[in-house]
């Protein structure tokens, strides 16, 4: 068995992460030991593995789909964009550099070697490895040093399945054009197409699918219908609206709706923290960028950010500081998580992330924050409201608490809470207890629904993805690609296929 396949996409947000997770769940149901893999991920959503490594949140979700413990090898390179056109490079779970686009380009040959080592290791330990590409494989200006798409596929001899989003339109042109822009050496690895997010009668689509097959010589291995309310971990800002702006229109047993406003910071990270709030019956979660959008909120959440000082300046420029101060004085709930918690402090000293030195915080919590060169990565466990709480932490800023009531690793003053712990709200007992107190302070007749399980809801969504592949993809053809590798794909460019453009040299 070749035991690996690469899922590429015609664009970002075409559905690569979802399809990869779906294939992982379908395979594990067949008794196959499967692992996800993404050589290079650019995302502000990350998580900490059990051994203290930081990887992309999407790969954690895919590992959950595969029912295996996530590990650094599943996402060897993670890029976390900052506020100045530079990104932090996380290699095998640890930050190693802050780079610009051209600086990063020079590191790619080395990073490809490390990624190939990780992929080879996973292929030895698992029956199947389902790899996810990044962006599009036809980004020809980046092809000569690509490490996530055709560069990886060529180096590891992986058959490639290309996913296209039909909901945004132009999917046939995108698929045909993707193949046309690849070199003959890359084209031979493209084994077929998956149409994603289809609405309507599949009979109307068939003539187009047949023509695509005729023109490219590659079959369409499935048409996947649009799935509403997946609520899976969003990887980038393209997914923000569907990932968070959701919730019930009525509270449990006809009681009040609890309204939550989440500040949509320009560089927000780990916004999956509020997903657990959004799935709670009777809780309505929405994004906010203007003062008036906070007015009727029962709870305002300041989420994590990759650039605390820069996003604090944005918050002030948008006129959001005064409404937050007024809320605190009036005893109306505010929660800060990680970077949001740092903003609530008295003072921030940052010579690491922004280089801004000493900056005044919002002054709503008795905390002083000092940024350290070494990043804190951990999986802490604690207790609050008499409930066990498990979370994870990813931050350079160290908060020193000078007063208030203890709250997880942070503190609370009145109706203002702060913690560096991500994922705390995924703990059902703690979340319900916290929402009960928020509702009481907000004067709402709201009681969280008993028995709501965030873990069970996540598992049900992953099962829906497994169903999606099992019911709408050609799983026999998928097995042939996984078992046969490149030999199961097309060994040459067939007559009638698009003319390929060879990509040579530095096209940047």
From TrEMBL:
Residues covered by the CobB/CobQ-like glutamine amidotransferase domain: 259-429
MF annotations from Gene Ontology: ABC-type vitamin B12 transporter activity; catalytic activity
Active site: 338, 422
Example of a GO biological process term: cobalamin biosynthetic process
Keyword ATP-binding: no
Domain (CobQ/CobB/MinD/ParA nucleotide binding) ranges: 5-230
UniProt keyword terms in alphabetical order: Cobalamin biosynthesis, Glutamine amidotransferase
Highest taxon listed in the record's lineage: Bacteria
Pathway noted in the entry: Cofactor biosynthesis; adenosylcobalamin biosynthesis
Cleaved signal peptide residues: none
Family of the protein in this entry: Belongs to the CobB/CobQ family. CobQ subfamily.
Protein function: Catalyzes amidations at positions B, D, E, and G on adenosylcobyrinic A,C-diamide. NH(2) groups are provided by glutamine, and one molecule of ATP is hydrogenolyzed for each amidation.
HAMAP family registered for this protein in UniProt: CobQ
PANTHER family: COBYRIC ACID SYNTHASE (PTHR21343:SF1), DETHIOBIOTIN SYNTHETASE (PTHR21343)
Entry protein name: Cobyric acid synthase
Gene: cobQ
């Amino acid at each position: 068995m070749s035991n690996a396949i690469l899922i590429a996409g015609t664009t970002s947000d075409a559905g690569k992460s979802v399809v990869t997770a779906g294939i992982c769940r379908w395979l594990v149901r067949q008794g196959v030991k499967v692992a996800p893999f993404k050589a290079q991920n650019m995302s502000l959503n990350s998580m900490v593995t059990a051994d203290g490594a930081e990887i992309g949140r999407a790969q954690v979700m895919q590992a959950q789909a595969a029912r295996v413990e996530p590990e650094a090898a599943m996402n060897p390179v993670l890029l976390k964009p900052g506020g100045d056109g530079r990104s932090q490079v996380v290699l095998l779970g640890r930050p190693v550099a802050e780079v610009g686009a051209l600086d990063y380009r020079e590191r790619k040959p080395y990073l490809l070697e490390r990624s190939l080592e990780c992929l080879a290791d996973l292929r030895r330990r698992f029956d199947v490895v389902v790899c996810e590409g990044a962006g599009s494989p036809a980004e020809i200006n980046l092809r000569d040093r690509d490490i996530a798409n055709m560069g990886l596929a060529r180096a590891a001899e992986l058959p490639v399945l290309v996913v296209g989003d039909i909901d945004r339109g132009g999917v046939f042109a995108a698929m045909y054009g993707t193949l046309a822009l690849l070199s003959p050496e890359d084209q031979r690895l493209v084994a077929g197409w998956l149409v994603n997010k289809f609405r309507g009668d599949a009979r109307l689509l068939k003539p187009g699918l047949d023509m695509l097959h005729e023109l490219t010589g590659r079959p369409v291995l499935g048409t996947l219908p649009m799935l509403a309310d997946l609520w899976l971990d969003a990887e980038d800002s393209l997914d923000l609206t569907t990932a968070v702006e959701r919730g019930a229109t009525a509270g449990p047993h006809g009681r009040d709706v609890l309204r939550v406003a989440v500040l949509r910071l320009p560089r927000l990270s780990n916004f999956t923290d509020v997903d657990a709030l959004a799935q709670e019956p009777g809780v309505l979660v929405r994004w906010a960028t203007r003062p008036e959008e906070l007015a009727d909120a029962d709870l305002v959440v300041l989420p994590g950010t990759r650039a605390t000082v820069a996003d604090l300046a944005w918050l002030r420029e948008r006129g959001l500081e005064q409404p937050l101060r007024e809320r605190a004085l009036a005893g109306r709930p505010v929660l800060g998580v990680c970077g949001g918690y740092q903003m609530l402090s008295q003072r921030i000293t940052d010579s690491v992330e922004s280089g801004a030195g000493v900056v005044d915080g919002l002054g709503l919590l008795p905390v002083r924050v000092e940024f350290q060169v070494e990043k804190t990565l951990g999986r802490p466990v604690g207790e609050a409201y008499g409930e066990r709480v498990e979370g994870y932490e990813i931050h350079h800023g160290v908060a020193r608490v000078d007063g208030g009531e203890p709250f997880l690793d942070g503190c609370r003053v009145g109706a203002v809470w702060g913690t560096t712990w991500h994922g705390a709200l995924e703990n059902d007992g703690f979340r319900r207890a916290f929402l009960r107190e928020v509702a009481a302070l907000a004067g709402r007749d709201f009681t969280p629904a008993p028995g709501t399980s965030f873990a069970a809801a996540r598992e049900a969504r992953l099962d829906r993805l497994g169903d999606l592949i099992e019911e709408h993809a050609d799983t026999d053809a998928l097995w042939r690609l996984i078992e046969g590798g490149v030999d199961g794909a097309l060994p040459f460019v067939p007559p009638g296929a698009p003319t390929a453009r060879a990509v040579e040299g530095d096209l940047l």
